[in-house]
Amino acid sequence: MELISLNATYPELQYEDYFMNVYFGAIARDSLNSSRPISNPAETPIQINEMFDTVSYDKGACILKMLQDFLSEQVFQKGVIQYLKKYSYRNAKTCGTAWQIFVLKVIYLPEVFALLLPDPLAVQYFWHIPLTYITSSSNTVHRHVLKTKTDSLKLKEGVVWVKFNVDMNGYYIVHYEGNGWDNIITLLDQNHTLFSPKDQVNLIHNAFELVSAGRLSLDRALDLTRYLQHETNNIVLLKGLGYLESIYHVMERRNISSVSEHLKKYILWYFKPVIDRQTWSDEGSISERLLRSDLLQLACDLRYSPCIQKAHELFSKWMGSGGNLDLPTDLLKTVYSVGAQTGAGWNYLLKQYSLSVSDAEKNKILYALTTSRHHEKLAKLITLGMEGEIIKTQNLAILLHAIARNPKGQRLAWNFVRENWKKLLEKFELASFSIRTIISGTTSHFSSRDELEEVEIFFKSLNNQGSQLKITRVVLETITKNIRWLEKNLSSLRNWLLNNL
C-alpha cells in the first residue's frame, strides 16, 4: 500500500522501479526451506518479535502487487476498500499456508509452451498461479491462471519466443528449459530493446536465482550479462552489475585472488565506458544518481585509478576545509571510504562523526570507517559501539554487519559476537531486530564447511539464550547454500572468465 500511495502522490519519483529491491529481498529469503507463511501463529514474546521480518512485510507486499496487476487496479482498489470496511477495528486472519517460491519450467514445442511445476519438495499443496506473458508476435499482455502442475499454452503459428511474468509483477521464477535460455541470450545480444527494462531485470534475476538453486549453469547466467555493455537503462545496469559485484565480493572474502582479479579486470574492461561517463555531482534523475553512486563506489572498490584519484582529491579538499566543503551528497560514501584508507583520513572521519548532528551523514561516515583494512581500527569501532557514547548502542548491530562485510573484519566481527554474546543480550532483547541483524550480518557471508560447523556449534551451545531463534536456521541454511554455490560454480566461473577476457 505504501508503493501505491507513493506512486499516486509523487509519480515523478518512479518509486515502482525500485520496488524490485523489495521483490529481490523477499525472493531471496523465501527461497530458503526455513521460510514461513506470511501469517503464522505467534504466542511467546520471541515468536511475536520474529514476525516483524522480510516475510511479513516484503513478501506480503509482493503478493499484493501481484494481485493488483492480475485483477486490475480498479478491481483491486474495490477489494481493498471492502476488506478495510469488513475488518475495521478488528484483526484480519490470513491463510495459514505458505505461498512458496514457485519455479515455472517453460519448454517450447511447435506452437505450444509446456508449463511445469515439477518440484515435489517445494510444497505439499498447490496454489493457483496468475501468469502473465508476452510473445514475439504480440506485446499484448496475455493472462493465464495455472491451476494444475502441468499445463500448456497454444500460441499463434510463428511465435519464436515467450516471456513470462511481464514487468516482474508476479511472485514466481521462470526457468526457460531446453534451448530457452540460449535463445534469450541471443535475443538480448541482438536487440535487448525487445524486452522492457523491467523484463530485462527479471530475466537477469531469474537466471542467477536458478544458478543458486542448481537449475542453471553459471556460465549461462554470465553469458546473459554480456549484452549489458550496450545497455543504457540505469535500472538494468544496476541489477546486472550488482550480481557481478556480489560474486566479486564472495571471491574477495574467500581470498580466491586468481578469480577475483580476473573478475575485477572483466568488470572494468566491459563497463569502463559507462564508469568514465559518470560525473562527480548530484545532477540528473533519481535513477541516474543511483547508478552514479553505485558505479563510482564499485569502481573505487575495484581500485580503478581515475576513481581513486578523484575521490582522494575531493577528500583532501574537504579535509583541508575543516569539513566545511560541500561534497556531492550521492558520492559521500565513496569519497569518505577512499579517504578512510589512510591513518590521518580515518582519524579525521572519526572526529567528524563525533561532531556531526546529521544522522544521514553519520551513517555514511560510519560505513566509511568500517572499510579500513587495519584490524586495530575496526576493533576500536567495536569498542566504541559497546561503550555507546561516540557510537550509540542502537547502531552497534549495523556496525557489526558492516565490519563483517569487510574481508579484513569478517572474522573479527564474528569472534566478537561469540565471545560477547551475554553482553549483547544485556543491551538488546533476544529476538529483537538488532540481535537478528547481528546474527545474520556476521555469519550469512560465510561459505566454508569449517565456518558452518563453527556457527552450528555456537548456536547449539546457547540453549535458551538464542538457539531457539528462527534466524539461526536461516543463517545455517544460507551458509550451506553459499558452500554449495562455490563447490558447484567456482570452476565454471574461473573458466568463463578466462574465455571472456
Automatic annotation (TrEMBL):
Domain Peptidase M1 membrane alanine aminopeptidase: 1-94
Membrane topology: Single-pass type II membrane protein
Cofactor: Zn(2+)
Domain ERAP1-like C-terminal: 161-479
BP term (GO), one: peptide catabolic process
A GO molecular-function descriptor: metalloaminopeptidase activity
UniProt keyword annotations, A-Z: Aminopeptidase, Glycoprotein, Hydrolase, Membrane, Metal-binding, Protease, Signal-anchor, Transmembrane, Transmembrane helix, Zinc
UniProt subcellular location: Endomembrane system
Record-level GO cellular component terms: cytoplasm; endomembrane system; extracellular space; membrane
Family indicated by similarity: Belongs to the peptidase M1 family.
Protein name listed in UniProt: ERAP1-like C-terminal domain-containing protein
Lineage summary: Eukaryota, Metazoa, Chordata, Craniata, Vertebrata
